[in-house]
Write a structure and sequence with these properties.
CATH topology of the largest domain: Hypothetical protein af1432
Number of strands: 3
Strand content: under 5%
Number of domains: 2
Radius of gyration: 19 Å
Number of helices: 14
Length: 270
């Protein structure tokens, strides 16, 4: 059930949410058109399942000097992961050197989200099972979730964007389906770090098509990202539907939300 936070008063929202929960305890509630921090905090207080709105797309206007040490360490890790010359064995060593990261990867890969038939008990097996492109994406996600002062709503947003970009790339039969996931995932870095996108990309040796997609919305991946951002904002006037049917976009969005909800639950729980 969607509730428009721009047209619904706080009093009405506070009255409506408990009633909906009482009628159906399994109902999923989405707060849309969130435009201020106070409304976002209200939605978190009322435990909405999904949050959506312009508030999440605008980084705070802070004077950029340098990244905090923790964020810099995360970007350095992501930078190494996305080095085009890196090999599987090097990624295995990189993960193993970070005890917290290794533990969280193994816990995550053995969670209900992946639903594997047998337990994975080593980083080597995890890396081999997921493959180079997937392990890059999932370890990047875990590293972002491990970032100091990280906001769980932004991790969920990263998951939603990543999955929707991946699904749309698949629907368009692009070979870069995994790159679609990466583009969606990294699109939240500006809001997470409050750093200019150019500064972030300078620190990351990403493939050119990914950098162009993030920076200028260029190329097939850039069009997909622009489509996802417009869809999130309900900005139908500037929405490029990529030649897909509206039902395909809606199905991709709902599937991404459901996937992000499950993956985020496993990733962010204690």
């Amino acid at each position: 059930v969607k509730i428009d936070m721009l047209t619904t008063s706080e009093e009405e929202v506070r009255r409506l949410v408990p009633r909906l929960r009482q009628r159906n305890k399994k109902i999923a509630l989405m707060a849309e058109r969130i435009e201020t921090q106070s409304v976002q905090e209200l939605c978190q207080l009322l435990k909405f399942d999904y949050l959506q709105g312009y508030y999440f797309f605008q980084p705070k206007l802070l004077k950029f000097q340098s990244l905090p040490t923790n964020q810099l360490a995360v970007l350095q890790l992501i930078s190494k992961l996305h080095n085009p010359d890196i090999e599987i064995k090097q990624i295995e060593v990189l993960i193993s050197q970070d005890v917290s990261l290794a533990y969280k990867l193994l816990r995550y890969i053995n969670s209900a989200y992946f639903n594997l038939p047998r337990r994975i008990d080593s980083i080597q097996r995890a890396v081999v099972m997921l493959g180079l492109k997937s392990i890059r994406s999932w370890v990047t996600l875990i590293a972002l979730a491990n970032m100091e002062n990280r906001r769980s709503d932004l991790i969920m947003l990263a998951l939603e964007r990543a999955k929707m970009c991946e699904l749309l790339a698949d629907a368009l039969k692009l070979k870069q389906k995994d790159s679609g996931f990466t583009v969606g995932l990294l699109s939240v870095l500006v809001v997470m770090t409050h750093a200019p996108l150019e500064a972030i990309l300078d620190a990351l040796p990403l493939e050119e098509e990914i950098s162009k997609a993030l920076l200028h919305h260029e190329g097939p991946l850039g069009r997909i990202l622009a489509c996802v951002l417009a869809y999130e904002r309900c900005d139908w006037d500037s929405l490029d539907n990529l030649g897909l049917e509206p039902s395909q976009l809606n199905d991709a969005y709902m599937a991404a939300m459901a996937d992000a909800h499950q993956a985020g639950y496993e990733l962010l729980k204690g």
